[in-house]
Specification:
- This protein is an alpha+beta fold.
- Helices cover 27% and strands 19% of the residues.
- It is built from 18 helices and 24 strands.
- The longest helix is centred in the C-terminal third of the chain and has 17 residues.
- The relative contact order is 0.17.
Length: 609
């Protein structure tokens, strides 16, 4: 049974218009007085007494149970550190930040644990005032001391993702019984919002304990759910907290509707799908277009017990594909990376695995207003890039596009181009058909993959076959999720699968993805190992811009530098999501700009017979 796509609350043109309006700094100046919400640019869209978020069903019934299937395992219940493998759902179900996000705006926050936020026009500081009613699940109040401790411990002992923001804080003080103020060292308009999204932990839970150590102790949070039962690596069960302090908040109306959430863990995605077909789990997100069309003819679908829902969105494509670790000597030369991009026969792989239905990712922000424009860089984008002309690779200024093949397996034109690039970089095919350099060293590398990633393995296998025509025989290594996390945290790989989602309001997270300061931080997301003054300059300009055109130019400049850096072999994206689910599981008719954002399921879904 195919359910027609539900209409987005805004069309693509409206998304662009809304983005431009919100990005405009010509909007009303934020006063240095407490506000109910904050936007990255301009003012928050929702008024103080908004009845509910626009994309929820405020009258959704509560109750029911939903069972999810997860590929992988877990051995920790501390999701804030590098060590261990903790379920990501802990962060959204059990813990809460000071502010909550409205996913129908590029980047706007509204009071959650905090009843108000205060900042000045320059955003040189931010002050949060906690709600008097805010409570942890055991009834203890959320205090200013908990807020200060949470920010400090995350910034000094937590995952590297929290360190950049902490390093920009000059001074922290408690300014009232329920108020905390942060003063900043540097100009960064995103900082108040970044801090608004930091999770608030209970200080008392960690007295006398090492925060950086992996643990299976059940955490205490302030969120709508509590962890009811679990078995390491097997399952977790969450139940709605009947005494949840935030039940009556406008921000929460129509959300957190399920009484019970259960997450079952399986060895790989193929087993998860089979469990879904057998009725052991209730919902399945399908990434493969061909599979969606051809393999959903099992009885539950044909009899209407399972519904196929297509959910559109207006997010940028992000980047997804095989990443080069440029810390390795083999991949430091851009010509080598470019040669392998030419050897990757996207059209043939797409036809083989997707019936050719999926469009290719063209750049990191493609499918959005933020993406780089075709042809040479012009105007403000060019001016920004010209400052780093000596560092830029071919195509950044003059224009760049990914190679295309004729769709045949041989990929002759691109293979010839690849051989030419390899030759320029000092690599040749010898008399025995093996790629070597002048010192006789064989060109070979490892493709590291996580066990259970079946589609990724299929792509790697086809790519590997194509490389044999160049005299290259890569080693494909498949390891369990624990080993995979350990090795990628230490950047112990040549090439691996890579995925980074992008928002309509990119900011400080870009430093973590590809900033110079994160290149050697174990656990950082800069897997490609790039350290570029030009990239850091674009990110800095994004964060300090006071005009719409400057912001867009900086993002488009960043997109050009990353794309022409040839750091990733991109695959496909989709401007909609495919979710098959039991017919009793419902979601609202209206959808936000972000579509099915992270947490969309189960955040605004409900159970209805």
């Amino acid at each position: 049974m195919l359910q027609k796509p539900k209409a987005l609350t805004v069309c693509t043109v409206c998304i662009i218009f809304k983005f431009l309006v919100l990005v405009s700094f010509a909007a009303t100046v934020v006063k240095a007085a407490p506000q109910h919400g904050i936007a990255m640019y301009g003012t928050a869209e929702l008024v103080a007494d908004f009845p509910s978020l626009q994309y929820v069903n405020p009258d959704a019934p509560r109750g029911g149970k939903v069972v999810f299937g997860v590929s992988g395992s877990f051995d920790s219940l501390n999701p804030w550190i590098v060590k261990g493998r903790a379920p990501w759902v802990l962060r959204s179900l059990i813990f809460e930040p000071l502010m909550g996000r409205n996913w129908d705006e590029p980047f706007s926050l509204y009071g959650l644990l905090a009843e108000s936020i205060e900042t000045d026009e320059q955003r040189s500081y931010v002050e949060f005032t906690l709600r008097d009613a805010a409570r942890f699940s055991d009834g203890a109040p959320v205090t200013a001391e908990d807020v200060i401790w949470s920010f400090e411990v995350l910034g000094t002992q937590g995952h590297p993702r929290y360190r950049t923001a902490w390093s920009k804080i000059d001074h922290v003080e408690q300014t009232g019984e329920r108020s905390v103020r942060f003063d900043f060292k540097v100009a960064d308009r995103e900082m108040p919002l970044i801090l608004g999204l930091r999770p608030i932990l209970r200080k008392a839970d960690w007295e006398g304990r090492d925060f950086s150590a992996s643990t299976m102790d059940v955490p205490t949070g302030s969120g709508p759910y509590i962890l009811d039962d679990f078995e390491p690596g097997r399952y977790l069960t969450f139940r709605r907290n009947p005494n949840y302090w935030g039940n009556d908040l406008r921000l929460n109306r129509g959300r957190h509707n399920f009484e019970e959430l259960r997450y079952e863990y399986f060895g790989d995605s193929g087993i998860v799908f089979e469990a879904f077909k057998a009725g052991e789990i209730d919902i399945y997100r399908e990434w493969n277009a061909a599979k969606w069309e051809n393999q959903y003819n099992f009885p539950a679908v044909m009899e209407g017990r399972v519904v196929k829902s297509v959910i559109p969105h207006g997010r940028p494509s992000g980047i997804r594909g095989f990443v080069f670790n440029t810390r390795r000597d083999l991949f430091r030369d851009w010509r080598v990376r470019d040669a392998l991009i030419h050897a990757f026969n996207f059209e043939f792989i797409n036809n083989t695995l997707n019936d050719g239905k999926q469009p290719r990712i063209q750049s990191y922000f493609s499918n959005s207003i933020l993406g780089m424009q075709t042809g040479p860089a012009e105007g403000k984008v060019r001016s920004l890039l010209e400052r780093h002309r000596d560092e830029l690779l071919p195509g950044a200024l003059d224009g760049y596009s990914l190679p295309r093949s004729d769709g045949s397996e041989r990929n002759r034109i691109n293979i010839r181009k690849a051989l030419s690039l390899f030759s320029e970089a000092g690599w040749f095919v010898d008399a025995n058909g093996v790629m070597r350099n002048e010192q006789g060293k064989e060109f070979t590398f490892e493709i590291l993959l996580a066990q259970g990633a079946n589609e990724t393995q299929a792509i790697a296998n086809i790519f590997s076959e194509a490389l044999l025509r160049l005299g290259i025989n890569p080693i494909i290594t498949v390891i369990d999720s624990a080993q995979y996390k350990e090795r990628t945290n230490r950047f112990d790989f040549d090439m691996t699968w890579y995925s980074r989602a992008m928002s309509l309001s990119p900011g400080n997270e870009q430093y973590l993805y590809w900033g110079r300061d994160s290149v050697n931080d174990e656990g950082s997301r800069n897997w490609m190992g790039v350290a570029s003054n030009a990239i850091d300059d674009m990110i800095s300009t994004m964060l300090s811009s006071t005009k719409q055109d400057d912001f867009l130019a900086a993002v488009r400049g960043l997109d050009r530098i990353l794309t022409t850096g040839r750091y990733v072999i991109p695959v496909w994206y989709s401007d909609h999501s495919r979710i098959a689910h039991r017919k009793e599981l419902k979601y609202p008719d209206s959808l936000p700009v972000y579509g099915d954002w992270i947490g969309f399921l189960p955040d605004v879904w409900w159970y209805e017979e």
